[in-house]
Structures are given as structure tokens and as C-alpha cells.
Amino acid sequence: MAKHRVLSPDRFVDKFQGNEQLLRDFVRLWGDGLNVKVSSLDVPGFKRLIEEGDWHRKDEFLEELHRVYDLCTDRGHEDLFAACRDSNYEPDPDGTLPVELLSLKVRTENEDAFNLAYDRCTLRQAQRFSIYQGKKGLAIANIGVATKRLQAALADTFKGDKHSDRVLVRQYQDSGYTNFVVYHEQRTKSLLVFKGTKADPKIAPTVLRPAQQDFVSYHSATGQAEFEARYQSEETALRKRFAECCFGDADLFERPEAATRFTLAPIADADFSMPVDDGDSAALVELHFSLKQRHGPTFVVKSKDVFDTLEFNHLRKRLSGDQVWRAVFKITFPDDRRGKRVELSGTNKISFNRQTHAEDVFRYLKNWGILLG
Question: Is the pTM of this model over 0.85?
């Protein structure tokens, strides 16, 4: 799930000076649950509402306000525009509203469009994907029906595996990708708690069922599918049900070669290089490998420049492609000087922040001979 940023009432709410009606409309969503006179609510009053009081719908109000604030970024602004366009909803005909006002207005007037924008935003924040390659690019026929089939199939699967059939699947299109956001329950037990009355107390476990958020991203032109799930068993279920419901073939991504998307063997080549565009830079900053020696030693090298460190310790020439099993690259861009840590392991596991430059990362990996196909 997306992590909420710390909300600063002053910096956020001050943007609504002269547009207090947007704040009032948002507060009206909570009825009498906030114990406030909405008709005269102003910016200072809204700040007090955030910082003070403990009315019975205060937690719901603050949770939604944090979600509104989560989208108050440049990327969130883009996601709001895209979601409103896909929903045939125009909250800002003149295109003049700052993102803070736009986000609150969309949440107040069109919750479905807001949720779609939030889904788009959280998919960009997903980091740990498993990548599979279908036989060829295939279009998903009747996407609406396929989405309903997927939701029903996952509900049936999780009912048996997790004793819960509460599943929600949303989908949207983005630059050739069909993206599915899958919500389902996970069962978590907390500590024992007292129940019953003071005169007749009882002890029972509190069972929480928070929603888990998984993702599927499919490119119809190439046939590449990306899956993120918390556990391997859930990823397998997601992969099979997606293939079955969208293409009528549950085994579409189960071929051994379907999961062979990366090879780390080129790293061991003496002439391996990492060319990037002007202004960008790339370095290998972590490498896990074994050596074909007695006792089978394994090594983990972490360095600002792993290749230079290997050379200095006379290990570069000892590398063997079939003994490299994990690598971490750091790629920096002019607008992202902290850089992206791109972690690769196995034949199809990749982890990095996909909010920006995801296409560049995959392009570089392909150019370096790491990403196959």
C-alpha cells in the first residue's frame, strides 16, 4: 500500500485562501460526524479541525485528507488529469487549479475518478516485480468483462487459500500497458483483548483483515507481463488467473522460458560496459557471486564501483557468468541525482522505484545485454 506523507496543515490548507468552498464541500462528505458548522468554515477553522477534536468520524476524515495530499505532487497531478479524462469528468475546464485544490475537488465530486488516480499513483510506487514473457503480444478482448472474470476467479481462489473472497480489481490503460490493481484481504491476528462486560469479562483474539494491494501490468504489443504480490503462492495465483481470464490460457506464462527475462552472465565478460545517454550515469554497486573453488565460497561486494574493487582485489578475471546470482546497479539522471537502485536476481526478479524513468531503466538493461528479447 502507498505510504502517506506527513501532512503539514499550514502549507497545504493555506493554498485554499479564496477557495474555502472546496474545503466546505469536502467536510460535508462526513455529515455531522465532525461537529463543525460547515457554512462558516474558513482556512483557520479547517486547520483547527485537523489538529483538534476527537469526533467519531475524525479518523475517516483524516485518512481521506491524507490520500488527497498523497496526490499533491507533479506525478499526482498527471494521474488526476489522466483519471478524469478516462472518466469523462472535467473538474477544471480552464486548467487553473493548483494540484492541492484539484485533488480535493476530485475526491469530493467524483470518488471513482479519484480512486483511479490513486491506483495509478500507487502502481508507480510498486517496486518488486516479477517479469514474464508471453509467446507474443496479445490484445485483451473486452477488457471490462475480462476484469470482472479476473475478480471472480481471484475471489474463488482466495476463498480456498485465505478463507476470504473479498476481492476488488480495478484496471486502466497507460501508454500501451493494461494495468490491474488487485485488492484482497490478508488475515492478521493481534494481541488478546478483553471483551464482554466488567462483571463478566472474556478474553478473545482480535483478528484484523487489512487490504493487500497487488499489481499486474501487461504490454499488449510485446506480450510482457509484470506481477507484484507479497508471497510467491499469491503471485502464482495472480499470474495463472490473469492468463486464464484475459487470454483463456492459464499456462501462458508457465513455460520455463517465460520466466527467463534477465541474464547476469554478461557482467562477467571482460568487455562488459554500461553505456548511457549524455547527462546520465550508471555504476555496478553490489554483486553477489560464487567462485568455482574448493569449499564453494560466495562473495558479496558492495562498492561505489564494484568493477574497480574487483580489479583491485584480483577477482575480476575469476568471475564466471553462471556464478553471478544478484546484481545492483545505480543509475542517475539529471533530475534524479540520488539515483535509482536497480536490483536484479534470478531470471525475472527486478526491484526499483518506477515512479520516474522506468522506460529508461529497461532500455539500458536491454542495451547492456541484461534484459533479454
Answer: no
